[in-house]
Amino acid sequence: MLTVLGGGGLLTSSLAGERGWGLTCGLVMLIGLCLGVLSKLRRKLVTVTVRGRSMEPTYHHGERVLVRRDFTPAPGQVVVVEYPGNGGVWPDPPVGHATGPSEITGRRWIIKRVAATSGDPVPRDTVPALAEAGEENVPEGQMVLLGDNPDASFDSRQMGYFPLERILGTAVRRLGH
């Protein structure tokens, strides 16, 4: 039996105790649900901080960008992609859809605009590294990525294709500094 204050006085009943227990259980379940939703959102949305001038004038050094973790970007969209290691080889396997924040933060990322995706014509005239490409169209699973500021950008102009599996996600909106 639990004693609680009622609307006009003191109410003592076993029913009041059950109702209090029900409210407590409901609150615990609501908190658990909120934590589950937040955990899923942390896997679907991440924030990145722009470093450098490669995406000026679109994004400036120090700005934060909200990124949606998807793997189907289209030409014109801005994406966050893993920076390759020495010789254009990535030392670790690609991150997956379920990769948590701790695995993402230990890697190097760059932000670039999608110029072409699988099946699009190879942009030989604007991408020197692809000027001698043997294929007419961007191969399956590959992308051409360019910085908005070519004078300050490491991108497909030097690297050639970027694998789609190395894309973290697409930029959704600027969050400010």
How do the strands and helices of this protein lay out in sequence?
Elements: E1 2-5, E2 10-13, H1 14-44, E3 45-49, E4 64-68, E5 78-82, H2 101-105, E6 109-116, E7 142-146, H3 156-159, E8 162-163, E9 167-176
Antiparallel strand pairs: 1-2, 3-4, 4-9, 5-6, 5-9, 6-7, 7-8
In short:
The longest helix has 31 residues, at 14-44.
Description:
With 177 residues, the chain is α+β, with helices and mostly antiparallel strands. Helix content is 23%, strand content 27%. The protein has helices at residues 14-44, 101-105, 156-159; strands at 2-5, 10-13, 45-49, 64-68, 78-82, 109-116, 142-146, 162-163, 167-176. The protein has a seven-stranded antiparallel β-sheet. The protein has a two-stranded antiparallel ribbon with strand order 1-2. A hairpin with a 4-residue loop joins β1 (2-5) and β2 (10-13). The longest helix has 31 residues, at 14-44. It starts with a strand and ends with a strand. The model is unreliable at 1-16 and 34-42 (pLDDT under 50).
Percent in helix: 10-25%
Q: What is the C-alpha radius of gyration, as a whole number of Å?
A: 25 Å
Largest sheet: 7 strands, antiparallel
Helix/sheet category = alpha+beta
Tally the beta strands.
9
Low-confidence stretches: 1-16, 34-42
Distance between the amino and carboxyl termini: 55 Å
Shape: globular
Strand content: 25-35%
Query: H/E order of the elements?
Result: EEHEEEHEEHEE
Count up the helices: 3
Average per-residue pLDDT, rounded, comes to 79
